[in-house]
């Protein structure tokens, strides 16, 4: 029996290692309590000076940009709720100037919730965000339970596992539409709106320093433009933002996660390749929709050119190009897959039981799944899932579902795919717990 039937793959060393590759220095405990102020990353923040009076601070899984000016400090993002104290200490290790302005690149739980510790320390900055951040926070409140489940969260000392009460959310003082310009002393900073992973995304350009604070618009792997568990992403506008940033000839990009990008040529290469990659997927998808192809036909025929798929900083460590394709389909063509039986389908368990009956029983279906796994693992996974859904208490079906789910998980590179393909082990563990009473 797979170890994943008793231990959640989310908590394994493999998942933690892959997450650290993508997101930075993740603490597995904090990863279960992203909204808890009392749960920190468990280590001092990493601080890296990237230009004169300019730092990248990594208090946990996300990066923060700090700009010192004669008028005070400009902070871009502030990490998870539990990162607040470490972020405060890191800022004070760089400068003793007061916090003048905070800009949020978007309202995700790992980027916009650590400001409370600085406010508690007496700082009174103006807080600036895109106007859609307010509706983003409203959505967080409405879907706290959903986000708890899909992000594998557990309650903190407050009893909440996800921001849900007014006091959980930072309050912007100034909202912008397309962008704004900030003056701190004699220096100009440009804030630009961009849709990407969210509709409230923004990035900050410091022209006198040739530095961009990009938030999650640049992360060092394939953009998270297709996440199947989350709300709509915006591949086309993400490409627009990448091209706009590329035109500035910046020398440093402070990314939302991971390492900074340095050097004008490296930055231009990454941004323009990213834009081309995203536009290729969008064009392929729209061409298929306009030709009347089914969504599955569009996704199955997606073949990303090697010069895009092989870029070292655009690898599918988190998202996958197929998911981006499906997100474009959802945006333009709705949720129906255009198989008529799936518009008003019979319950999945009923379908699975009928498939098992036609196969000669659950055991026969599970055996065929295992037989098929060596030649067509993707198809075998369907059979294994039908066998389990047809009879969740059948030991053969349980073992088959876990074994094939684990094989699919282990063959994948994307973290979000690995998490999804660890579901069979969790479901079998839950079914066995119910059997034990």
TrEMBL record:
InterPro entries: Alkyl/aryl-sulf_dimr_sf, Alkyl_sulf_dimr, Bact_Alkyl/Aryl-Sulfatase, Metallo-B-lactamas, RibonucZ/Hydroxyglut_hydro
SUPFAM superfamilies in alphabetical order: Metallo-hydrolase/oxidoreductase
Superkingdom assignment: Bacteria
Metallo-beta-lactamase domain span: 61-257
MF terms (GO), sorted A to Z: protein dimerization activity
Pfam families xrefs: Alkyl_sulf_dimr, Lactamase_B
Descriptive protein name: Metallo-beta-lactamase domain-containing protein
Source species: Amycolatopsis taiwanensis
């Amino acid at each position: 029996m797979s170890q994943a039937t008793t231990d959640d793959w989310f908590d394994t060393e493999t998942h933690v290692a892959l997450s650290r590759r993508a997101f930075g220095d993740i603490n597995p405990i904090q990863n279960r309590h992203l909204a808890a102020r009392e749960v920190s990353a468990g280590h001092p923040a990493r601080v890296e000076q990237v230009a004169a009076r300019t730092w990248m601070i990594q208090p946990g899984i996300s990066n923060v940009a700090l700009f010192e000016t004669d008028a005070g400090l400009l902070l871009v993002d502030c990490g998870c709720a539990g990162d607040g104290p470490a972020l405060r200490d890191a800022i004070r290790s760089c400068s003793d100037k007061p916090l003048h302005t905070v800009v949020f690149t978007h309202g995700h739980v790992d980027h916009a919730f650590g400001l409370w510790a600085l406010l508690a320390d007496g700082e009174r900055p103006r807080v600036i965000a895109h106007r859609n951040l307010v509706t983003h926070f409203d959505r967080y409140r409405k879907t706290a339970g959903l986000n708890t489940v899909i992000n594998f969260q557990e309650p903190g000392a407050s009893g909440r596992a996800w921001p849900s009460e007014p006091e959980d959310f930072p309050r912007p003082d100034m909202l912008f539409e397309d962008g704004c310009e900030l003056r701190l002393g004699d220096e100009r900073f440009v804030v630009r709106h961009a849709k990407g992973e969210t509709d409230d995304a923004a990035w900050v350009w410091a022209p006198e320093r040739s530095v961009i604070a990009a938030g999650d618009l640049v992360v060092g792997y394939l953009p998270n433009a297709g996440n199947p568990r989350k709300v709509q992403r915006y591949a086309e506008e993400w490409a627009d933002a990448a091209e706009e940033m590329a035109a500035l000839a910046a020398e440093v990009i402070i990314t939302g996660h991971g390492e900074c990008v340095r050097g004008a040529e490296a930055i231009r290469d990454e941004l323009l390749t990213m834009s081309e990659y995203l536009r290729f997927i969008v064009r392929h998808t729209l061409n298929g929709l306009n030709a009347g192809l089914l969504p599955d036909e569009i996704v199955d025929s997606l073949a990303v050119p090697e010069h895009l798929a092989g870029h070292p900083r655009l690898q599918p460590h988190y998202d996958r190009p197929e998911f981006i394709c499906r997100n474009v389909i959802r945006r333009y063509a709705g949720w129906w897959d255009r198989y008529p039986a799936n518009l008003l389908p019979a319950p999945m368990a009923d379908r699975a039981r009928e498939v098992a009956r036609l196969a000669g029983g659950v055991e026969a279906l599970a055996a065929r799944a295992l037989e098929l796994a060596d030649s067509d693992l993707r198809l075998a996974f369907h059979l294994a899932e039908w066998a389990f859904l047809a009879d969740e208490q059948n030991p053969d079906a349980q073992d088959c579902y876990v074994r094939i789910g684990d094989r699919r998980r282990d063959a994948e590179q994307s973290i979000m795919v690995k998490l999804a393909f660890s579901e069979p082990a969790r479901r079998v563990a839950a079914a066995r717990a119910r059997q034990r009473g």
